[in-house]
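Thread: Newbie trying to understand structure tokens

Hi all, I'm a second-year student working on a class project, and my supervisor (Dr. K.) asked me to get a predicted structure for one chain before our next meeting. I've only ever worked with sequences, so writing a 3D structure as a token string is new to me. If someone could post the tokens and maybe explain what I'm looking at, I'd be very grateful. Here's the chain:
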Amino acid sequence: MEQRLRLIVEKMKTSHADLGLLQGKMGHALFLYQYARHVDYRYEKYAEKCIDEIVEGIQKMNGSYADGLAGIGVGIEYLVQEGFVEGDTNEILSDFDEVICHIVSFAPNLIDIRIGIIGYGKYYLSRLNNPNNKNKENSNTKHIKEQLHKIVDLLSDNYMTYEDLYFVINFLPDIINQDINKGKALVFLNYTVDLLETMVYEDTFFGKQLGAFNPLTVSVLLFNSSKKINNRDLADRALFFLEKYEPEYRIYLAKEYAIKWAFLYYTLWKACDCDIYKESSVQWLDKVTDNELNFENGDLIISGLMLLSMNESINNDWLDWFPLI
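---
Reply by user tm_fold:
Sure, no problem. This is what the structure looks like when written as tokens:
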């Protein structure tokens, strides 16, 4: 495990990534700070270098979650809340709040977390988790909650891709927990899971999108959602997807994503206490070779976080901010 982690951090040191959260320097910083804290403190200087590069280039950034201000803002909140850097994010991110408020007001009805409204929702959820805002009523929290209420209202029933449904399932439980637009959020979460089940049934028996769906991802998202809002029905739906679809979908699990499959099975083992998933996790991790660590930047970040989770150095909170697709 540590050898694979070392290979990832060495690749990050020489990477020419963009500045964003999902594939760039902010994602590198989040991983490197955690790696320095739990494995090798000497790599903190590389995390700090990433932050310096972000500060230098921030004026040229767009507003998106993938490679713009929304993702950078989430990264800053995460680093401050985890104690890696110091600062008052209500002050640091005040300009971000204005820019993203303007974007949401004129945003197209695109759900994609990378460039759409779910990404801006994730930004506001991270702002609400700020200790100065959490469980408090002030001008910041009022504005943040108004924006989140508006984003939930922008959701519709026109989303027909698996990715869109995954993004909604990952987003709405946190909204429900915050009691923001809760009635609509609950209805739409249940509708989304029902729609997902229908789409999978049609794919399996009619071949519309055969292979695009993965029950491991869906089940992890549903187990996490169940835990967040204390909804046993969502856990039962996760078990349904696993029991009905996981065995036959193993043939679609490509070896180049071995770390992802190892992590998903590991997480399912923790959720279900099922030794079969533990064995599958070990088997997939054993398939990872040095040659298969030649990732794109986004895969490099999420694979590193997955390895830290399986090493039990960190918990899975990072799944709130990085899409599991």
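A couple of things are worth pointing out once you decode it. The first helix runs from residue 2 to 13. The CA atoms of residues 35 and 41 lie 8 Å apart. Feel free to ask follow-ups in this thread.
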